[in-house]
Amino acid sequence: MKSKMKIGLALSGGGVRGIAHLGVLKALTDAGIVPTKVSGTSAGAIVGAMFCQGYKPEEILKIIVETNYFKFLRPAVSLTGFLKMDSVGTLFKLYLKHDDFSELQIPLTVAATDIKKGKVRYYSEGELIRPIMASSCIPGMFDPIVIGNRYLVDGGVLNNLPVEPLDGTCDIVIGVNCNQLPEEANISNMKKLIERSVIMAMNYNVYSRKAKCDYFIEPPALGKYGVFDIKKAPELFSVGYDHTIKYIEENPSILELAVQPNKSIKA
Q1: Which of 41, 166, 214, 267 has the maximum number of C-beta atoms within 10 A of its C-beta?
Q2: What is d(CA 47, CA 168) in angstroms, rounded to the nearest whole number?
């Protein structure tokens, strides 16, 4: 039986930990569960854009592993960030050539934070690449992205699981959080203290939205991985995939959402 339900998928931010989203997507699509609308913050926005463009999860992983993302970053002559993200747009342009939300094969919404107004901004039409960059612009590390008269930083500051764009437009919402924290007996240095505190703050606004999800997938202990630990990409993919396979086994009702895989979605 093919599901005719509109399935929304909300993907959290989390730096390199967002690679676990690819494993989740691989497991879901292998089971025939294909979202009809996607929303994402930060890493979730990047993964969402690539997936909605038509790239398969394994293809996205290969691109990430083979691309030296950091060579596209430039020092910022600014008091609001150490690095500029503008050159990253060149990288995104290689894979999202049209730079237009309307050209994606699956509708996408990305969340960013308007740092001057203190509000979440959702982008789902018009230019695509700069909103993705804004959504993943870590405050303090990167200079804010300017779109119009708005100064934008990482969407995770205020909304790290953007279910709101899916609410009322989708029959079922699947939320995926890639920041679950393990218990930490010993915080050995300031870096760990700050990083753990930031993840806890981001998780707070994730869990406040958990009730809006019909299914909530949270691969275990991803918080132990560093934000930029790109060498662990295959491991992160496997963590997301293995956990989702187990989640499906423990929540078989999710298989009622299954459709035949959409063969029209190609890279």
Answers
A1: 41
A2: 23
Q: Is 7 helix (H, G, I), strand (E, B) or coil?
A: strand
Residue 152 domain-assigned (yes or no)? yes
Q: Is residue 11 part of a domain?
A: yes
Nearest alpha-carbon partner for 130 in 116, 120, 144, 119:
144
CATH number for the domain harbouring residue 35: 3.40.1090.10
Question: Cα separation of 26 and 52, whole Å?
Answer: 13
Using DSSP's 3-state secondary structure scheme, residue 217 falls into: strand
Mean pLDDT of the residues in the chain: 87
Domain range for 231 is 7-256
CA angle centred on 125, ends 123 and 126, rounded to 5°:
110
Q: Name every residue whose Cβ is closer than 8 Å to that of residue 177 and which is 6 or more positions away in sequence.
A: 12, 14, 160, 161, 203, 206, 216, 217, 218
Q: What is the pLDDT of residues 18-30, one digit of tens each?
A: 999 999 999 999 9
The model's pTM is 0.89
Annotated catalytic sites, by residue? 42, 154
Cα gap 185→116, rounded to integer Å = 37
